[in-house]
Design goal:
Blueprint: E1 11-15, H1 24-33, E2 38-41, H2 48-64, E3 72-76, H3 79-87, E4 94-97, H4 104-111, E5 116-120, H5 124-129, E6 137-140, H6 158-167, E7 172-174, H7 183-188, E8 193-196, H8 198-201, H9 206-220
Parallel strand pairs: 1-2, 1-8, 2-3, 3-4, 4-5, 5-6, 6-7, 7-8
Helix pairs in contact: 1-2, 1-9, 2-3
Length: 222
Protein backbone atom coordinates (compact mmCIF):
# COMPACT_ATOMS: atom_id res chain seq x y z
CA UNK A 1 0.00 0.00 0.00
CA UNK A 2 1.41 3.40 -0.99
CA UNK A 3 1.21 6.57 1.07
CA UNK A 4 -1.31 7.80 -1.49
CA UNK A 5 -3.62 5.03 -0.32
CA UNK A 6 -3.04 6.06 3.30
CA UNK A 7 -3.45 9.80 2.75
CA UNK A 8 -4.77 11.58 5.84
CA UNK A 9 -5.44 15.31 5.48
CA UNK A 10 -7.13 15.74 8.85
CA UNK A 11 -4.32 17.88 10.35
CA UNK A 12 -2.29 19.53 7.61
CA UNK A 13 0.65 21.88 8.16
CA UNK A 14 1.69 24.37 5.47
CA UNK A 15 5.08 25.89 6.18
CA UNK A 16 7.99 27.77 4.63
CA UNK A 17 11.00 29.65 5.88
CA UNK A 18 9.19 32.99 5.69
CA UNK A 19 6.55 31.73 8.15
CA UNK A 20 9.02 30.72 10.88
CA UNK A 21 11.26 32.39 13.40
CA UNK A 22 12.97 29.02 13.91
CA UNK A 23 14.13 26.28 11.53
CA UNK A 24 11.27 24.76 9.51
CA UNK A 25 12.22 21.23 10.51
CA UNK A 26 11.80 22.11 14.20
CA UNK A 27 8.19 23.12 13.59
CA UNK A 28 7.63 20.03 11.43
CA UNK A 29 8.92 17.88 14.29
CA UNK A 30 6.63 19.60 16.78
CA UNK A 31 3.55 19.24 14.57
CA UNK A 32 4.09 15.64 13.47
CA UNK A 33 4.97 14.48 16.99
CA UNK A 34 1.62 15.87 18.16
CA UNK A 35 -0.46 14.19 15.48
CA UNK A 36 -0.31 16.29 12.32
CA UNK A 37 -0.82 13.98 9.37
CA UNK A 38 0.37 15.96 6.35
CA UNK A 39 3.12 18.54 5.73
CA UNK A 40 3.36 20.88 2.77
CA UNK A 41 6.51 22.91 2.18
CA UNK A 42 5.47 26.20 0.59
CA UNK A 43 7.70 29.18 -0.03
CA UNK A 44 7.56 32.09 -2.44
CA UNK A 45 11.03 33.32 -1.46
CA UNK A 46 13.19 30.19 -1.15
CA UNK A 47 15.38 29.07 -4.03
CA UNK A 48 15.01 25.57 -5.44
CA UNK A 49 18.13 24.46 -3.58
CA UNK A 50 16.87 25.96 -0.32
CA UNK A 51 13.58 24.11 -0.73
CA UNK A 52 15.40 20.85 -1.43
CA UNK A 53 17.42 21.35 1.74
CA UNK A 54 14.23 22.03 3.72
CA UNK A 55 12.64 18.91 2.28
CA UNK A 56 15.66 16.81 3.17
CA UNK A 57 15.59 17.99 6.79
CA UNK A 58 11.81 17.66 7.06
CA UNK A 59 11.82 14.16 5.57
CA UNK A 60 14.53 13.19 8.06
CA UNK A 61 12.42 14.43 10.96
CA UNK A 62 9.37 12.51 9.76
CA UNK A 63 11.52 9.40 9.35
CA UNK A 64 13.01 9.76 12.84
CA UNK A 65 9.50 9.94 14.26
CA UNK A 66 8.62 6.70 12.46
CA UNK A 67 5.95 8.41 10.37
CA UNK A 68 7.32 8.16 6.82
CA UNK A 69 4.63 5.68 5.82
CA UNK A 70 1.76 7.66 7.28
CA UNK A 71 2.61 11.39 7.15
CA UNK A 72 2.76 12.78 3.61
CA UNK A 73 5.43 15.35 2.72
CA UNK A 74 4.31 17.56 -0.16
CA UNK A 75 5.53 20.64 -2.00
CA UNK A 76 3.44 23.60 -3.08
CA UNK A 77 3.54 24.31 -6.81
CA UNK A 78 7.17 23.35 -7.51
CA UNK A 79 7.04 20.12 -9.50
CA UNK A 80 10.68 20.72 -10.43
CA UNK A 81 11.67 20.75 -6.76
CA UNK A 82 9.82 17.48 -6.10
CA UNK A 83 11.59 15.77 -9.00
CA UNK A 84 15.00 17.17 -8.06
CA UNK A 85 14.58 16.17 -4.40
CA UNK A 86 13.69 12.64 -5.44
CA UNK A 87 16.85 12.50 -7.53
CA UNK A 88 18.75 13.10 -4.29
CA UNK A 89 16.90 10.24 -2.63
CA UNK A 90 14.61 12.44 -0.52
CA UNK A 91 11.18 10.95 0.19
CA UNK A 92 8.76 13.56 -1.16
CA UNK A 93 5.26 12.22 -1.59
CA UNK A 94 3.67 14.66 -3.99
CA UNK A 95 2.66 18.18 -4.92
CA UNK A 96 -0.12 20.67 -4.32
CA UNK A 97 -1.02 22.99 -7.19
CA UNK A 98 -3.32 25.90 -7.78
CA UNK A 99 -5.53 26.80 -10.70
CA UNK A 100 -2.74 28.74 -12.44
CA UNK A 101 0.07 26.27 -11.70
CA UNK A 102 1.25 23.23 -13.66
CA UNK A 103 -1.82 21.18 -14.70
CA UNK A 104 -2.58 18.14 -12.57
CA UNK A 105 -2.34 15.77 -15.52
CA UNK A 106 1.25 16.89 -16.12
CA UNK A 107 2.06 16.42 -12.44
CA UNK A 108 0.58 12.93 -12.53
CA UNK A 109 2.58 12.04 -15.66
CA UNK A 110 5.89 12.97 -14.04
CA UNK A 111 5.18 11.86 -10.47
CA UNK A 112 3.50 8.53 -11.15
CA UNK A 113 0.49 6.69 -9.81
CA UNK A 114 1.65 6.40 -6.20
CA UNK A 115 2.18 10.12 -5.63
CA UNK A 116 -0.25 12.53 -4.00
CA UNK A 117 -1.62 15.50 -5.93
CA UNK A 118 -3.75 18.18 -4.30
CA UNK A 119 -5.58 20.98 -6.09
CA UNK A 120 -6.73 24.35 -4.79
CA UNK A 121 -10.39 25.00 -5.58
CA UNK A 122 -12.85 27.16 -3.69
CA UNK A 123 -15.93 27.22 -5.89
CA UNK A 124 -18.50 24.58 -6.77
CA UNK A 125 -17.87 25.17 -10.49
CA UNK A 126 -14.18 24.28 -10.19
CA UNK A 127 -14.74 21.31 -7.90
CA UNK A 128 -17.43 19.72 -10.04
CA UNK A 129 -15.51 20.32 -13.29
CA UNK A 130 -12.18 18.93 -12.09
CA UNK A 131 -10.88 15.60 -13.38
CA UNK A 132 -10.80 13.89 -10.02
CA UNK A 133 -9.10 10.82 -11.47
CA UNK A 134 -5.87 12.84 -11.37
CA UNK A 135 -6.13 14.31 -7.86
CA UNK A 136 -6.44 13.11 -4.27
CA UNK A 137 -7.95 16.08 -2.44
CA UNK A 138 -9.06 19.68 -2.82
CA UNK A 139 -7.59 22.54 -0.81
CA UNK A 140 -10.27 25.12 -0.04
CA UNK A 141 -10.09 28.56 1.57
CA UNK A 142 -9.73 31.04 2.89
CA UNK A 143 -11.83 30.65 6.00
CA UNK A 144 -10.55 34.04 7.16
CA UNK A 145 -8.44 36.70 5.48
CA UNK A 146 -4.73 36.02 6.00
CA UNK A 147 -1.37 37.54 5.18
CA UNK A 148 0.09 34.22 3.98
CA UNK A 149 -2.41 33.47 1.22
CA UNK A 150 -3.15 36.66 -0.66
CA UNK A 151 -4.48 35.03 -3.83
CA UNK A 152 -7.56 33.47 -2.24
CA UNK A 153 -10.65 34.63 -4.14
CA UNK A 154 -12.75 35.25 -1.07
CA UNK A 155 -13.45 34.01 2.41
CA UNK A 156 -15.92 31.16 2.83
CA UNK A 157 -18.56 30.62 5.47
CA UNK A 158 -19.00 27.28 7.22
CA UNK A 159 -22.29 26.87 5.34
CA UNK A 160 -20.54 27.40 2.01
CA UNK A 161 -17.85 24.90 2.96
CA UNK A 162 -20.50 22.32 3.88
CA UNK A 163 -22.05 22.76 0.43
CA UNK A 164 -18.68 22.24 -1.27
CA UNK A 165 -18.21 19.02 0.71
CA UNK A 166 -21.56 17.75 -0.56
CA UNK A 167 -20.65 18.23 -4.25
CA UNK A 168 -17.00 17.17 -4.08
CA UNK A 169 -15.92 13.73 -5.26
CA UNK A 170 -12.67 14.08 -3.32
CA UNK A 171 -11.90 14.97 0.32
CA UNK A 172 -11.55 18.66 1.15
CA UNK A 173 -9.04 20.29 3.48
CA UNK A 174 -9.87 23.85 4.56
CA UNK A 175 -7.52 26.59 5.70
CA UNK A 176 -6.80 30.26 5.59
CA UNK A 177 -6.59 31.76 9.05
CA UNK A 178 -7.97 28.68 10.84
CA UNK A 179 -7.76 29.07 14.61
CA UNK A 180 -8.40 26.71 17.49
CA UNK A 181 -11.88 28.14 18.07
CA UNK A 182 -12.85 27.33 14.45
CA UNK A 183 -12.20 23.59 14.70
CA UNK A 184 -15.59 22.40 16.04
CA UNK A 185 -17.59 24.29 13.39
CA UNK A 186 -15.18 23.19 10.68
CA UNK A 187 -15.42 19.54 11.69
CA UNK A 188 -19.21 19.85 11.59
CA UNK A 189 -19.05 20.61 7.85
CA UNK A 190 -17.68 17.07 7.28
CA UNK A 191 -14.48 18.28 5.62
CA UNK A 192 -11.54 15.92 5.50
CA UNK A 193 -9.42 18.20 7.63
CA UNK A 194 -7.96 21.63 8.32
CA UNK A 195 -4.71 23.25 7.22
CA UNK A 196 -2.81 25.90 9.14
CA UNK A 197 0.27 28.04 8.68
CA UNK A 198 0.68 30.66 11.39
CA UNK A 199 -1.44 28.86 14.00
CA UNK A 200 1.48 26.46 14.44
CA UNK A 201 4.48 27.98 12.62
CA UNK A 202 3.93 31.36 14.26
CA UNK A 203 3.05 30.05 17.70
CA UNK A 204 5.27 30.72 20.71
CA UNK A 205 5.02 27.00 21.45
CA UNK A 206 4.40 25.11 18.16
CA UNK A 207 4.21 21.75 19.92
CA UNK A 208 1.45 22.90 22.28
CA UNK A 209 -0.41 24.66 19.47
CA UNK A 210 -0.32 21.52 17.33
CA UNK A 211 -1.51 19.35 20.23
CA UNK A 212 -4.46 21.66 20.94
CA UNK A 213 -5.55 21.72 17.30
CA UNK A 214 -5.34 17.95 16.86
CA UNK A 215 -7.12 17.29 20.16
CA UNK A 216 -9.91 19.73 19.25
CA UNK A 217 -10.34 18.06 15.86
CA UNK A 218 -10.63 14.57 17.31
CA UNK A 219 -12.92 15.73 20.11
CA UNK A 220 -15.21 17.39 17.55
CA UNK A 221 -15.62 14.16 15.63
CA UNK A 222 -16.88 12.20 18.65
Amino acid sequence: MSIRDRLDISAYLVIGQENCTRPVEEVVRAAVSEGFTCVQIRSKVATAREMISTLEKSAAVIRELGKSDSVALLVDDRLDVVLAAREFGIKVDGVHVGQSDIPVEVCRKFLGADSIIGLSANTEEIITAADVSQIDYFGVGALHATSTKTDAEKTLSFAEIAELVKVSARPIVVGGGVKLKDIPALAATKVGGFFVVSAVAGADNPKLAARELVTAWHDSLR
